[in-house]
Amino acid sequence: xxVARYISQKIDGGADSxxxxxxxxxxxxxxxxxxxxxxxxxxxILQGFRNEIQNxxxxxxxxxxxxxxxxxxxLEVAPIASTQLLKQLxxxxxxxxxxxxxxxxxxxxTPDEVMGVVLKGIAETDGLxxxxxxxxxxxxxxxxxxxxxxxxxxxxxxxxxxxxSVGDKTLFYFIQNPARIRQFRVCGVYSTGxxxxxxxxxxxxxRQIRQLNSPAWADSLVGxxxxxxxxxxxxxxxxxxxYERLPYDLKIDKITDQYAQLFDWLQxxxxxxxIFLILIIFVATFNMVATIFIMILERTNxxxxxxxxxxxxxxxxxxxxxxxxxxxxxGMLIGNAIAVGFCAVQYYFHIIPLDPENxxxxxxxxxxxxxxxxxLNAATFAASLLAVLVPTYLIARIKxxxxxxxx
Length: 407
Hints:
By secondary structure, the protein is of the alpha+beta class. The protein has 2 domains: about 5-55 and about 265-405, no CATH class; about 70-250, no CATH class. Helices cover about 50% and strands about 20% of the residues. α1 packs across α11, α2 runs antiparallel to α9 (about 260-300) and α2 (about 20-60) packs across α11 (about 315-350).
């Protein structure tokens, strides 16, 4: 039988609920539980926030954009042949999917308003468009097999400014030589919460762009190619590989460079949260150190008697170690229950809303990351056990004769 563990259990079970030690013990358990719960909740919210923002950005520009080098500053660049480029791109193992696109500036005119926009033509030739996730009203563009679709997807901000709703038809004026007019039907409304997109882009069929640019554009020509990678973390390495192996007249734009301010902001949030979590762990471990010190002081008489009976310092140290281990495990179980419960309620019921104008989303997002959950639990467990070991070395300095007389 493990004597140290047995005595530790007797101390745990026989503690007076009204004693000072019992109160401090409860505080230690609560501090560990709340600290761990806050850490898990903070990481779940932060990661959810990052994922939501990144997915909104990726829905417009994927991870990489490939287009032709052009000396002008216009959005409308020279076209590239898509057939050969698709074969080259799919030869890269890092590539998950591709989507051709083309853009054209236009003016939308309604009976009451006029607004300049960018019509972005897309095609779902390699899977569904990620823009579908941003749809808030109506339905997505219906791509016919032969004719170009007259459906367009506008943002909620554009819809409010022009007083358009799903099903309305409106005129698009394209300033070119010769000038052209097209009537499109609003099939749906999207919202990303990012003004960089919502105030500018209208989504349509890429074949409409080809027809507007005809006869210069054949059916195989596109304005560029958006590339989604299997792992976003490989974006720098994959971009370098593209530079080396793709034709020299093509340029590769990384989404992290195009929207550098947004990604720098997300990185800054990461650093702030790490500092915050370090402070939480410090407070929790400090409370544990104080708790063990108080337990040792209150059990000084018992320590003296055990030493007089032949117990070694290591045996007594293990006794308090098991006591601290018990408190740590209980605090962690309570903390995990609180954090997972809160995250589940927010994930499924969205009880905490946000202002989309300021936070780019209408609710607090939650991301489930089992790996991070294990890391946070392991870090808390290790820090708490280290905090338990530090004060137990005070036991070696306690003299049996003095300890027995200690009051």
